[in-house]
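Encode chain A's predicted structure.
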Amino acid sequence: MEDYKIFACYDSKEAEKINPNFIYNRFDLWELKDASNYVKLFCYESQTEKIMFEVLCFDSYARLGMYLMVLSNIALDRISKFLFNSLNISRITFENTFVAGGGQLVQYNHKYRITEHNHLRIELPETIEELDLRLSSKGRYNIKREKRMIEEAFGGCKVRHLPALDVAALPIWEDYFKYKYITHKIHYGLNAKEYCDKYHVTDVYSLALGQEEKIAAIVLSCEQCPIVYIENLTYDVELGHFSPGQVLYDEYLKKLIEKGFREIYLLGGDYAYKKRYGSIEETVYSGTIYKNTCVKLYYKMNSIWKFGVRKLRNIFKEKVK
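Encoded structure for chain A:
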């Protein structure tokens, strides 16, 4: 059998060596509100693999920071067994990982629950000109036309870039929450600081129209690591015919290039804007590993129970109406 070892790293500076180095692999940069939560840095080494990763520990489970990391089924199995034996946890979760064999884990290990989905990222070029060339001639024409239409209709427009919690950004946050409710019926119930702590937003970009600087589109960005993560994009649907979201997204990518960033993660989905600018679409796996079948059964029954309670509550609300 292949020799391997798993050991804790106690030098916090070692976390800078995590690859890919971005916020959802860097739990040490998160604002942890609960004193019972803590982060540990580990290294897995075998003859064929070497992986440095963080683990975010909660009361009964742990989250692996292995976003877009490549590891084998064997390595994942060894790491999970090590953590179950070392930490007082009953389940482990991981997201968007390149697991060799992927969904096959379900076929031979009853403790796993794995889902397969897509992920998109862009390796940014060194120049803005190179980014433009990644669009078709029609795509470049449409962007220029949309910008011209906005400028003519509103007497100009500009992209504003602010630290997420800058005082000047607070009105932009009000528009963000309003637009997200209109488009997705999402009510976060958070203020700007709470949102940034939860979703790790560092920078806010907005498309401001005319002298009144009406906010037409907003991008929330996580830029504390070498690889950027776009947390969210929204726009004023009443101005949808101007494509303000696409116009701002184009300017946002160019701002990142000017800042020296060379990669951005877009998560998954089928949004058209994510498929542009030479984005790379890949298959990744997310899932939960349970300590044993009893634990898995408990969480499954608990999930069914919560689903049933929610359904009964909704039925009751409808009857009351």
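The longest strand covers residues 112-123.
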